[in-house]
Design a protein that fits this description.
This protein is an alpha/beta fold and about 250 residues long. About 40% of the residues lie in helices and about 15% in strands. The chain has helices at about 20-30, 35-55, 65-80, 90-100, 110-120, 135-140, 155, 165-175, 190-195, 240-250, and strands at about 5, 15, 105, 125-130, 150-155, 180-185, 200-205, 235-240. Strands 5-4-1-6-7-8 form a 6-stranded parallel β-sheet, with helices on both faces. Strands 2-3 form a two-stranded antiparallel ribbon. Helix 1 (about 20-30) crosses helix 2 (about 35-55) and helix 2 packs across helix 3 (about 65-80).
């Protein structure tokens, strides 16, 4: 019997309010680099896919400083060869701040009703996310905090998914055993494999447009399923959060 749920944040509960390429290109233009939004969107999606697979340090990111440096390097990769900035550091600072605002994010349509049902059923909930410590404030401003007993940001606890220790920390704080909890998230590597490695059940949330986690990173455009992206045997897949919850909570 599942006694508690842990949930990912970006791409699971909320998504960027505006397209990635549009926001990136608007901020870049103010710093002297003019690039077509569609081009930026394509480059971001490609860079994210590459970096997610090669994982240049992502699983070792722990502190806010490391988290920020990782995203700064990724953003630099997105704009490599696209022109010059009057001040790239200034550009990234503005971009980072922009995506820390609750105005930059929107809840997925079914999230509020799903959380209401879980709250009414007294199901303990935790957020487990690779994010900087500002996640707690962001969740509060998005009206999410009241639903969750625990909000764990990697930059706060010093551990990033898929490290099983961050999941172990979540279930310990929820007061349940790992086998009594299930995790729902949109990343096969971070959420599914991470949760399974910690002894939790897992549901892979595959929305039509997959969300990307992290303070300065907006949602990438949807992509065709990658043949390498195959759920482990016995792991359920859902397209919406309420569908995912119904698979593990009766």
């Amino acid at each position: 019997m599942i006694q508690a749920l842990t949930l990912d944040a970006g791409g699971t509960l909320f998504h960027p309010s505006r397209p990635a390429g549009l926001v990136y290109s608007e901020v870049a233009s103010r710093w002297g680099c003019r690039v077509d939004p569609a081009t930026v969107q394509e480059r971001f999606a490609a860079a994210w896919k590459t970096w997610s697979r090669t994982d240049p340090g992502r699983t070792t990111v722990a502190t806010p400083e490391e988290e920020r440096a990782w995203w700064k390097a990724l953003v630099a990769e997105v704009f490599r060869g696209c022109g010059t900035f009057a001040d790239f550091d200034g550009f990234f600072d503005e971009l980072f701040v922009a995506f820390a605002s609750p105005d930059a994010w929107s809840l997925y349509p079914e999230v509020k009703a799903t959380l209401d049902r879980l709250h009414a059923a007294h199901v303990p909930l935790a957020i487990v996310s690779n994010w900087d410590p500002r996640l707690e404030l962001l969740c509060d401003r998005l009206g999410l905090s009241g639903y969750f007993t625990v909000i764990l940001a990697s930059g706060r606890v010093g551990i990033s998914k898929p490290d099983p220790r961050i999941f172990a920390e979540a279930v310990e704080r929820l007061g349940v055993a790992a086998r009594e909890a299930a995790h729902i998230g949109d990343s096969l590597r971070d959420d599914v494999h991470g949760a399974l490695g910690a002894g939790l059940q897992a549901v892979w949330l595959r929305r039509s447009s997959e969300g990307m986690e992290g303070p300065p990173v907006p949602q990438a455009v949807g992509r065709e399923p990658d043949p390498e992206d195959a759920a482990p045997r016995g792991v359920a897949v859902a397209a919406l959060l309420d569908e995912a919850v119904k698979l593990v909570v009766s």
